[in-house]
Amino acid sequence: MKKIVKEYFLLKNTFNPQIARNKLFEKIWGRLSKIPLLRDKTANFYFRKHETILQYLENEFEYFLKNYLYDEEIEFDNSNSKIIFSMWIQGEENAPKIVQKTIESQRSYAERYDYQYVLLDEKNLFNYIDLPEIIIEKYKNGIIDFIKFSDIVRVTLLAKYGGVWLDSTIYLETSEKLEYLENDFYTIRLKNDEKIPKFVPKGRWTGFCLAGKQNFILFKFLRDFQIEYFRRFNVAIDYFLIDYLIELAYRKINSVNNSINENSETNPELFFLATNMSKKYNDHDWKEVLKNTSLFKCTYKVKINSNEGTYFNKIIDK
To answer: In b/e form, how buried is each residue of 25-59, taking b as 16+ CB within 10 angstroms?
Structure first.
């Protein structure tokens, strides 16, 4: 309870009472969403929550948005686009087994299809990017948490080099080249079957898999907006801040809107391993999944059954 009260007053004092109340009520509405009679009211709550945050960001960063150079006619530079980035900040050798395996799968794909593979950690990160000192200091002091710092890193890399960003928890298995990773813009788009819009993307994008050409306007916009945001604030307005910023770009920049809308649905079984990792491996089912899905979001944050015959065991022994 103390943590909830502390968070409420932090958001109230940093932003406004409405944003603080929404965060508080979200914990309640999240549970009520399971009651069929309350689904419409729950959906309306989340809609209002999202719009309140978006409106706050628009008002607070009006000058930035009006004066930002929306250079939509820029010519892409493809020279550095065959590169895959991922990051495990503590170093690969210190990653959990499942993460070591997901990294191995990414590296294997890169080698097969002539990509440069760059796994970033605290030792090599700043060999690839430069960030304002205030951002680095706020990260080192714990003001910017690792999730938000990682969000800044990924779009900074893509704006500078182009290529592919895969979270280190993405497992990749395919016998064919994934041509969509070399599109002008790509992200995993999923069918939107959410009855309650708890999350801003509504299936249109996933922040843990982004790809595109160097200098694509979305990557530059997200880099610059996040840097501007954390210059001014020490608190993220929401855990999924980057999704709200992508939504603003989607609404305000025609080329971003078009790129996201034109991006086809792929990898429908994206979360198959996350939900089945501890279950008994079924060769027929796995082969069926691989017919339409090559990228799989995994997790190391839940207890995994590592016994013989599970999907986890099959992946680890592969």
So the answer is: ebeebeeebeeeeeeeebbebbeebbebbbebbee
Helix axes 17-32, 2-14, angle to 10 degrees: 140
Please give the structure tokens belonging to residue 101. Answer: 């395996």
- Beta pairing partners, 287: none
- How far apart (Å, rounded) are the C-alpha atoms in residues 298 and 315? 11
**How many angstroms separate the CA atoms of 252 and 114, rounded?**
36
How far apart (Å, rounded) are the C-alpha atoms in residues 137 and 142?
A: 9
Helices (H), 73-170: 97-112, 133-140, 146-161
Question: Do the beta carbons of residue 259 and residue 183 sit within 8 Å?
Answer: no
User: Residue 211 in 3-state DSSP?
Assistant: strand
**Residue 164 is inside which H or E element, if any?**
strand 163-166
User: Which residue reads 């709550």 in tokens?
Assistant: 45
Show the low-confidence residues of the chain (pLDDT under 50).
none
Per-residue confidence (pLDDT) for residue 78, from 0 to 100 = 55
Beta-carbon contacts of residue 128 (< 8 Å; ≥ 6 apart): 85, 118, 120, 157, 160, 161
Given the DSSP bridges, would you call strands 209-212 and 163-166 parallel, antiparallel or unpaired? antiparallel
* Main-chain phi, psi angles of 90, to 5 degrees: -85, -5
- What was the pLDDT predicted at 229? 98
pLDDT value for 308: 86
At residue 29, the pLDDT reads 81
d(CA 309, CA 219): 42
Closest to 254 in 3D by CA, of 223, 284, 221: 221
The pLDDT of residue 317 is 86
- The rounded distance, in Å, linking the Cα atoms of 148 and 136 is 12
Can you tell me the distance from the alpha carbon of 49 to that of 238, in angstroms, rounded to the nearest whole number? 10
pTM score above 0.90: yes
In this predicted structure, what is the pLDDT of residue 145?
A: 97
